[in-house]
Amino acid sequence: MTEPKRILVPLDFSEQSLRALAYAKTIAKPFAASLDLLHVVPNPYVADPSGLYTPLPQNFLDDLERDARTRLDESLPTDERSAPRARSLVTVGDPLLEIVSCAHSEHIDLIVMGTHGRTGISHLFLGSVAERVVRTAPCPVLTVR
């Protein structure tokens, strides 16, 4: 494995994703790698009473993005943002597509992400973003359970 210089950490603020952030910080330090913390606000469409999908109001979406930025900043305190270098990214869309797109566009060397480790029926219905990222990412992916 080559030394990672850019590490992407997708965060949904679950216990598993915060555990993945701790691993990413440990990996980043000896390589002086930068950390890109990414939160994806899920696609903002909801079913209305007629069964059609309509977009959420922009002010609601703005609130979700603002909350995500605040939580990302809290996930990595200011004193931990310089060594290793870190930045926060918030996007809106499908988590799988946004994570893989970010890895491509930002030339990420390693993705470190949490997984819930679901099996059986819950895995069948809910799927696994982490599993799909592993299959489609342009770089190695470390999953943390």
Q: What's this entry about, in short?
A:
This protein is an alpha/beta fold.
How many structurally independent domains?
A: 1
Q: Please give the largest β-sheet.
A: 5 strands, parallel
CATH topological fold name: Rossmann fold
Fraction in beta strands: 25-35%
- Kindly report the average pLDDT value: 84
Compute the number of strand runs.
Answer: 7
Say which CATH homologous superfamily is assigned.
HUPs
Q: Helicity level, as a percent range? A: 40-55%
Strand order of the largest sheet: 5-2-1-6-7
Second rung of CATH, namely the architecture: 3-Layer(aba) Sandwich
Approximate shape = globular
Instruction: Give, in order, the helices and strands.
Output: EHEEEHEHEHHE
Task: Explain how this protein is built.
- This protein has about 140 residues and is of the alpha/beta class.
- It has one domain (about 5-145): Rossmann fold (3-Layer(aba) Sandwich).
- Helix content is about 40%, strand content about 25%.
- It is built from five helices and seven strands; from the N terminus they run E-H-E-E-E-H-E-H-E-H-H-E.
- The strands form two sheets. It has a five-stranded parallel sheet, sandwiched between helices. A two-stranded antiparallel ribbon has the order 3-4.
- A hairpin with a 5-residue loop joins strand 3 and strand 4.
- Helix 3 (about 95-105) packs parallel to helix 5.
- The radius of gyration is 16 Å and the shape is globular.
